[in-house]
Amino acid sequence: MTPTESHTLLPLYVHPEVDPAAWRHAAAGERLTVVVRDDGDDPAVAGALSQLAAAGVTTLGHVDTQFATRPVADLQEAVARWARCPVSGIFLDQTPTSPFSIGPVALAVRAARRGGLSVVLNPGTSTDPLYRELGARVCTFEGTWQRYRDWSGHGSQPGDGHLVHSVPPERMAEARALLRQRRAGFGLVTDRTPPEPYAGAPAWLVNADSPVTA
Question: Does residue 166 lie within any of the structural domains?
């Protein structure tokens, strides 16, 4: 993935058989990178991934590091499973921020690179500079629109990812403008809300004739 300030990173954490429309909208999107959480060994997921690839959509497989508490062998096996699927990289979610917890993350990044996969780290907040030495993209914000408006931007660098949910429809343009102002290299603004802000396509992707990117 080569994010730009207008590139949308879309976590799509819903099974294609549960919400096939969301996957169709993602396949029709432009300048999208889609993060897939369901197991790529699932035939339905594998088929949906192939359709996204045929449409020119970049895909990343979701791997939860559980803030470096997940057993290393389990973490490496998760990366290896995605390496067998038609994805371009992995999205290491819930990555830690302490320099003392970097070991499992570094091993996962190394395993991904051996499998020919790019890596995005998602601590969802600022992280120790040591993590940037891994050479992966970093999401330094994940949270609500209200938190994003009040966020100081401390620890974020130009090109980082910002994932903003719970955006009121009338604030969508303002949210996109703020991502650009803060020089986010990639990210998402979505109206969807917790507990599952990524369990479907955002309204702007569903409703637009040609998707508007963040």
Answer: no
Instruction: Give the integer Cα–Cα distance in Å for 121 and 124.
Output: 9
* Domain range for 191: 7-154+173-207
Q: Is 161 domain-assigned?
A: no
Q: Report cis status (omega within 30 of 0) of the bond before 194.
A: no
Q: Is residue 1 part of a domain?
A: no
Cα–Cα distance for residue pair 30/175, rounded to 1 Å: 19
Question: CB neighbours (10 Å) of residue 214?
Answer: 27
Segment 5-59, tens digit of pLDDT: 459 999 999 999 999 999 999 998 778 999 999 887 889 999 999 999 999 999 9
Quote the number of domains for the chain: 1
For residue 208, the model assigns a pLDDT of: 66
Burial string for 159-195 (b: 16+ CB within 10 Å, else e) reads: ebbbbbbbbeeebbeebbebbeebebbbbbbbbbeee
